Amino acid sequence: MSTAQLQELTAAGTLEEKILTRQAKVGIVGLGYVGLPLAVEFAKAGFDVTGIDLSDSKVGRINAGYSYVGDVADSTLDPLVKAGKLKATCDFSAVADLDTVNICVPTPLRKTKDPDMSFIVSACAEIAKFFHPGMLVILESTTYPGTTDELVLPMLEQGGLKAGQDFFLCFSPERVDPGNPKYNTSNIPKVVGGITRACSEMGRLFYSQALLNVVAVSSTQVAEMVKLLENTFRMINIGLVNEIALMCDRIGINVWEVIEAAATKPFGFMPFYPGPGLGGHCIPIDPFYLSWKTKQAGIEARFIELAGYINGQMPHFVVDKIQNALNDAAKPLKGSHVHILGVSYKKNIDDVRESPALDIMLLLKRRGARFTYSDPHVPQLDLEGEALRSEGTELVASADCTVIVTDHAAFDYRAIVKAAKLIVDTRNALKGISSAKIVLL
Ligand SMILES: NC(=O)c1ccc[n+]([C@@H]2O[C@H](COP(=O)([O-])OP(=O)(O)OC[C@H]3O[C@@H](n4cnc5c(N)ncnc54)[C@H](O)[C@@H]3O)[C@@H](O)[C@H]2O)c1
Q: If pLDDT is split at 50, 70 and 90, which confidence band does 265 have?
């Protein structure tokens, strides 16, 4: 047996044993919507987990047992912290004592729609300083195919260690769906692919200790592409249904009824719903990681560009709807008061990243309308430097027009319809309520 094969066996054997006996020290870098629930799952599975984040306030809150992520209850987090199973720090030197590290840092787009890799690069640079043999590193941040192999691997191998031999490196796409009552970090199947077969196997073994279903694939590139296929599929289908909504509006057909009836087909159709525009940290962004990468290979991602254009038109369409509805009521939009219900990008969560509500607010402002908002999940909001506060829903009575942008379950829709003068419903939240005041998307 060669020295390399022997090293591979030793590194794998030691880590495998630590993982199977729950002795492996688990690290999660980036404690946001993805990282904190993951840290909690591994702590619940009996591992000692250390979270590393740049934010003092997040670290302080975790160590005090308070969660800032909707899907993690204080009653889950606090006992894990008190039992010493989960702690957080801003200090990357903690990596020296860790056996595994999952990287869950942001991957936004630059203004030019190019991937911003700076968070991954800075996290890996810090990890590399305290990197040691026998570790398993898994990138979870959504990114373009090739990132783990081309960007992360050289940073970790620069000290002379070799992936698959001295350490293990994988990519695993995160599929968490904040606010989903049925699917969470533990029961969403987890795809993982490694740089070598030994890496994939180690990744599969690791996740299997805390998550219900793990799907190992042959490479990091396949795992990276899985996430982009899933989110591109969603983005394009939403683009299609938004275009159908624009068509139905023009020819006077209720698009919601059309989708509901089409969805009775038991095969070959999957319902997607139109809305005020795409939001969140994933669907509006991830497909552009793919188009950026394919452009370099000489392939234009035309479906992505087209769906991006149509989805980007939806906030404009909503504001046109508001303007037309007000015109029909003999009121100009300029100077009118529009009250917005819901500003997070989807229902029952507090995340406003890329939310179409922000675009709608800016468009209303540009057209001279006055606006207020109610959102039980978002008590305050920064709109390009302007600080806004959530108001009570009683404002619908005095507003010239109310617009439902996010269909939170907490709103009393019957009372809202009763009190409002005019309502534009971009989510079909008022389904089953009939009133001449309602204007559907
Ligand atoms: N939010 C989702 O629903 C979701 C779903 C699937 C995938 N993802 C992907 O997962 C990744 C993380 O997303 P998120 O929503 O958890 O982001 P987030 O902004 O909620 O959390 C990221 C955390 O990383 C920290 N951070 C940033 N740079 C760091 C660094 N260099 N070192 C340590 N910590 C650092 C931030 O302070 C923050 O707490 C992204 O790539 C995203 O696309 C997110």
A: very high
Q: How far is the CA of 221 from the centre of ligand 1 (A)?
A: 20
pLDDT, mean over the chain: 95
Distance 393 CA to ligand 1 centre (A): 32
Ligand 1 lined by 308 (C-beta under 6 Å): no
pLDDT of residue 283: 87
List Cβ neighbours of 89 (8 Å cut-off, separation of 6 or more).
50, 51, 52, 59
User: For residue 31, which of 11, 10, 61 has the smallest C-alpha distance?
Assistant: 61
The residue whose CA is least distant from atom 36 of ligand 1 is 30
Cβ-based neighbours of 257, under 8 Å, separated by 6 or more: none
pLDDT at 3 over 70: no
Centre of ligand 1 to C-alpha 86, Å, is 18
The DSSP letter of residue 308 is H
Q: What is the pLDDT of residues 8-58, one digit of tens each?
A: 557 677 999 999 999 999 999 999 999 999 999 999 999 999 999 999 999
401 is catalytic: no
Establish whether residue 342 lines the binding site of ligand 1, counting it when its CB lies within 6 angstroms of any ligand atom. no
343 — phi, psi (to 5°)?
Answer: -125, -10
Contact 417, 355 (CB under 8 A): no
176 lines ligand 1 (CB under 6 A): yes
Contacts of 43 (CB under 8 A, 6+ apart): 49, 80, 85, 86
In the block, residue with structure tokens 């599975």: 45
Q: Which residue has the tokens 């993951």?
A: 38
